[in-house]
Amino acid sequence: MTWLAAATAIGMCLGAALPTPSTEDIKLLKLKEESALSNILFPVLPCGSFKLEEATIDDMQAAMNNGTLTSVQLVGCYVRRTFQTDLYINSLLQYNPDALSIAAQMDAERAAAKVRGPLHGIPFTVKDNIATKDQLETTAGSWALLGSLVPRDAHVVAKLREAGAVLFGKTTLSEWADMRSNNYSEGYSARGGQCRSAYNLTVNPGGSSSGSAVGVAANTIAFSLGTETDGSVINPAMRNNIVGFKPTSEHQDTVGTFGRTVRDAVYALDAIYGLDQRDEYTLAQDGKTPEHGYASYLTTKAALKDAVFGIPWNSFWRYADPEQVRQLTALIKLIEDAGATIINGTEITDYERIVSPYGWDWDYGTSRGYPNESEYTVVKVDFYNNIKTYLSELENTNIRSLEDIVQFNYDNDGTEGGHPWPLGHPAFYSGQDGFLASLATKGIKDETYYQALNFTQCSTRNGIDDALTYKGKKISGLLVPPDVAQAPQIAAQAGYPMITLPAGTHSASGMGIGLGIMQTAYGEPELVKWGSAIEDLQKSTNTPYKRTLPQWRDFLKRNIPVYNVYEGSD
Fewest beta carbons less than 10 Å away: which of 118, 285, 364, 558? Predict the structure, then answer.
């Protein structure tokens, strides 16, 4: 048996040796405070002498540099943690069989005094719609693409490999990143099954980058990548009480990063940003990103004395539930006490027209009679064309178009839910109506398309930029409740950057509450500066409005679809 096979077997045995919660454990829960649940049910075991629970990337680097931890050990311990938790939360879709050999290479480089940077030897995961040219599948959670071969690593994966990070595997997601259905179980895919949040296994875990966020939150991986068209990074990060960072994009689609701390999410961002000659939308970054990376903007709570934050109350805050408002305003008061200036009423221009008062609706323009003002008008057309381009480069597949995917779903109704429930699958209640809407466009960019593209981009960009200007001066950022999904939606339409910080949990559901900061195009340095300052403030005080560990509520339930529930306590 090779050392690789032996190491893998050891990791599997370690995982198998972890006890499943017994009847006595469950009885004991009744005698314990809820704050102790995660330690009773799913304790994060040490990695040798290294404390793995809530370990930061800097912690890992320090341990590897002083010889108390290796990258191979770290991968093995995350394998053990995955075996311990994944039958419950299902965050990992596929383990990378090359992970240990990559880790061994990074250990050898470190022993030879070659350390590539802060991500050297650090395990990470990526969402299953991000291509990797290795032994892993890339399927967007669909059986339709099983066995297909991608031509190359995605640019962001190649950059992370160059940085010395260790690809641990692919994460579960909402199938086809939420494009296939408009009424579905968030976090479900035919190939991956239902991803569940460790905070509450019965409710919406956030998506579409569900497994990426859930895994980071449950301490099964150091950091992860997701993708976003509209909220798919910010929403799962917020719901799972971690940091989510969505960078600037010329169009809505972008890759984002997940970490348990701002610094960890920024380390990942530093590794992936930059020009990709195969992606024309990244070319606009030229000359607009920092020469020495975003981590140079990390700071402490002392910086808050110079901050000026706006509160777009009528635009977003009035839609937040009362408990969320109480918690977030208490946190904002803490920020104000640290020296920041808070200005209420810094509204998104024309919010009455562009912000849906009825919750997230990416076809809100059409809902009010103006499809030429709807982002969905744009997204439907773009998806039809982009998926055809992507499929054209794949090998070992007969799937070449959206038409082929739709037919595959009909032919495999029991697993892929081509027809609406009850004919298809309960996770895809509306079948594949999203695909059918895209199919109907045939990818034609007509006058309505261009009007919608211009309106959604210009109205949201102008709206945010105006809100960021107070008495002729630019302010530090807009503080928003990302649980009000219209906030990340407006940022997504604009292609503007946004960060969400963990800020407590809902008492009724146990799911995370976040505090978001919005900025203008290429305003990432501001988000890094103020996000890290607020996080430092949270950690240096006894405020409860910060990241807390998962409570594993309803860990024995397996409902599909997951519940979309009102989360406030009153």
Answer: 558
How many CA atoms does the CB half-sphere of 478 hold within 13 Å? 32
Q: Which of 38, 142, 212, 232 is catalytic?
A: 232
Q: Are 467 and 310 in contact (CB under 8 A)?
A: yes
Contact present, 135 and 167 (Cβ < 8 Å):
no
Q: What is the DSSP letter of 151?
A: S
In angstroms, the CA 517 to CA 480 distance is: 6
Determine which one of 38, 127, 209, 532 is catalytic: 127
Q: Are 212 and 255 in contact (CB under 8 A)?
A: no
- DSSP alpha helices (H): ranges in 426-523? 433-441, 447-467, 486-494
Residue-wise burial string across 278-292, b where 16 or more C-beta atoms lie within 10 A, e elsewhere = eeeebeebeeebeee
Q: Any residues with CB less than 8 A from the CB of 194 and at least 6 apart, and which?
A: 90, 185, 187, 188, 427, 558, 560, 562
One of 142, 174, 208, 438 is an active-site residue; which one?
Answer: 208
φ/ψ of residue 388, rounded to 5: -65, -40
Read off the pLDDT of residues 132-191 as tens digits, 9 standing for 90 and up: 999 999 999 999 999 999 999 999 999 999 999 999 999 999 999 999 999 999 999 999
Nearest to 499 by CA among 157, 264, 186, 338: 264
Q: How far, rounded to the nearest angstrom, does the alpha carbon of residue 369 sit from its chain's CA centroid?
A: 32
Type of residue found at 50: F
The distance of Cα 206 from the centroid of its chain, to the nearest Å, equals 8
Give CA–CA dist 230/242, Å, rounded. 18
* Active site (annotated) includes residue 127: yes
Q: What is the pLDDT of residues 520-554, one digit of tens each?
A: 999 999 999 999 999 999 999 999 999 999 999 99
Whole-number CA gyration radius for the chain: 23
Taking CA atoms, 394 is separated from 131, 252, 391, 429, 442, in Å, by 11, 24, 5, 30, 21
- Which residues share a beta bridge with 258? 224, 244
Angle 532-495-382 from CA coordinates, rounded to 5°? 140
CA distance 439 to 82: 38
Based on the residue annotation, tell me whether 32 is a catalytic residue of this protein.
no
**In the annotation, is 208 catalytic?**
yes
